[in-house]
Design brief:
Pfam families: Glutaredoxin. The chain is an alpha+beta fold. The chain is 51% helix and 18% strand. The protein has a single domain, classed as Glutaredoxin (3-Layer(aba) Sandwich). The chain has 5 helices and 6 strands; from the N terminus they run H-E-E-E-H-E-H-E-E-H-H. Strands 4-1-5-6 form a 4-stranded mixed β-sheet, sandwiched between helices. The protein has a two-stranded antiparallel ribbon with strand order 2-3.
């Protein structure tokens, strides 16, 4: 990718991150996740009942590679809450099990789906 393509992908990522209170960069879609980690992340968000948006990184190679640079995190899925990087699937699971994820959503004023 050229420097211009990398910059453009980073700009699209930044726009996406700030476009939803809860955003998950994942492989596939919520109805058809393309990896077990993405599936687990969706299950957690669905179980907590929060409104969220997703970006399918498989649809855009620039975003698929760029999100790893943007967050300085090497794996996908990646969860963002109110523009802040939270973590990947393992961190989401740990936070879910300890109640921290529910607390984070409450603290940030994230709306429940409904």
């Amino acid at each position: 990718m050229s420097d211009e393509q990398v910059h453009e992908a980073q700009a699209r990522i930044a726009t996406a991150v700030h476009s939803a209170d809860v955003l998950l960069f994942m492989k596939g879609t919520p109805l058809f996740p393309q990896c077990g980690f993405s599936s687990r992340a969706i299950s957690i968000l669905d179980h907590l009942g929060v409104e969220y948006a997703t970006v399918d990184v498989l649809q855009d190679q620039g975003i698929r590679q760029g999100i790893k640079t943007y967050s300085d995190w090497p794996t996908i899925p990646q969860l963002y809450v109110k523009g802040e990087f939270v973590g990947g699937s393992d961190i989401m699971m740990e936070m879910y099990e300890s109640g921290e994820l529910t607390d984070l959503f409450a603290e940030k004023g994230v709306a429940n789906a409904g």
